[in-house]
Amino acid sequence: MNKKIWLSSPHMGGFEKEFIDEAFETNWIAPLGPNVNGFEEDLQNFLNTDNAAALSSGTAALHLALILLNIKKDDEVLVSSFTFSASVNPIVYQYAVPVLIDSEKDSWNMDPELLENAIKDRLKKGKKPKAIIVVHLYGMPAKMDEIDKIAEKYDIPLIEDAAESLGSRYKGKATGTFGTFGIFSFNGNKIITTSGGGALVSKNKEMIEKARFLATQARDNAPHYQHSHIGYNYRMSNIVAGIGRGQMKILNKRIEQRRKINSIYVQKLGSQNGITFLKEPDSDFFSNYWLTTILIDEKIFGKTLLDIQSTLAEHNIETRPLWKPMHLQPVFKDYPKYINGTSEAFFNTGLCLPSGSNLLPEEQNKIIELILS
Ligand SMILES: *Cc1c(COP(=O)(O)O)cnc(C)c1O
Question: How many CB atoms are closer than 10 A to CB 195?
C-alpha cells in the first residue's frame, strides 16, 4: 500500500521541541507558564490585536465568548449553518437557541441578506438575538463589511469563528479581529497545531482577563480557595503552548504553502468543465486556503463525487465531503433556520481535497491525475 495521503495533517517546523525542552528543563510542566504567555504574545503580534487568551480548544474559546456575552437559557444566537458542529454546540451548552443562517454563493459563508431578514423576523416575533457567530469556513473570509454593518445597525455582538482561518484577511485585516470576540483552533488538522488548543481574542482587555479567570476555575483573589463564579478548566498547558510557539515561527510559510497547493489545483483542474473551486470573490478577500474545496457537476464532469472519492481512497488518499449543514443534522434540525438551499447544494456536490502544507508535489500531481483519469 502507498503511504497514506492525508487531508490535512500536523506539520512541525523544527522549532517546537526547543520550547518543550525548555519547559522540561525549567520544570514548567504546570498548566501555565512562559510558553503560554509567549504564545499569546505571538498570536497578538501576528493578528495585530492587543488581547489573546490561550485555551484548551477552539470550542472552549467559543463557549467562553458566549458566557462573557451573558448568553443564557432561551437566548437566541444567530450562527452560520454551513460549518462544523463545534460552532453551534457551545450555544446549546448555555441552554440557548441556535438560529441557523444559510450561505451565499461567493464566499460560501453566512449570507448577509438572510442574516438581516432573520434579525427582522426574530424582532417581529418579539425576541432580539443576543449574538451572531459568523464562520470563515475553509479559510475563506465571510463578507465582513456587510455583516459588521448589520451587527452594528441592530446592536448585536459579533463573534467570529476563525478556527479554520488563521492568517486569512478581509481588506487587509485579520479574520478573528473584527468582532467583539474571535476564536481560533489549534486542533491537529488546522493550519498550525498544538496537538489540541484554541484561543480567544478581543479588543476588550477586561473581557480577555475575565476569560483567563473563568478558564482557570474562577478563583477569587483571596488567601484561601474562594469562588464567586462558576469556573472552567479551559486553559492551555505550558507544554502544548511550546508547540504553538514553534508553529508560530513558520505560520507565514504554512499560509504560503497552502495557497500554493490551492493555486496548483486551480491551475490544473480549474479549466475542467464541471469542476468549480471556492475562490476569493475579489481582492478584498485573502484566504489561507486551509482546505481546497471543489464542487462537481456530475452531469457535466461525467463522474460522481463518490467515483472520485472511492478512486482516491483506493490509492490511500483521504478526501472529505463538505461539512453537512447544521440545519440538516439530526441534533439541530428542529431549531429555527433561515435557509436558501445554498449550503445543502454545496454539501451534495462538494469535496475537500488533500491540502496539507506537507503534501509533496508528486503526491499532488497523482491526486490531480486520478481525478482526471
Ligand atoms: C475546528 C473547528 C472548531 C473547533 O475547534 P477545536 O479546537 O477542535 O475545539 C470550531 N469551529 C470550526 C469551524 C472548526 O473547524
Answer: 13
Q: Name the residue range of residue 311's domain.
A: 252-372
337 vs 218: CA distance, rounded Å: 35
What is the tens place of the pLDDT at every residue in 79-99?
999 999 999 999 999 999 999
Our count of domains for the chain comes to 2
pTM of the entire structure?
0.97
143 and 203 share one domain: yes
For residue 226, the CA-to-ligand 1 centroid distance in Å is: 33
Q: How far is the CA of 58 from the centre of ligand 1 (A)?
A: 5
Pocket test for ligand 1, best of 161, 175, 352 (most atoms within 8 A of CB): 161
Query: Distance of CA 30 to CAs 23, 34, 263, Å?
Result: 9, 10, 43
Calpha distance 293→276 (Å, rounded):
9
Tens-digit pLDDT profile for residues 286-327: 999 999 999 999 999 999 999 999 999 999 999 999 999 999
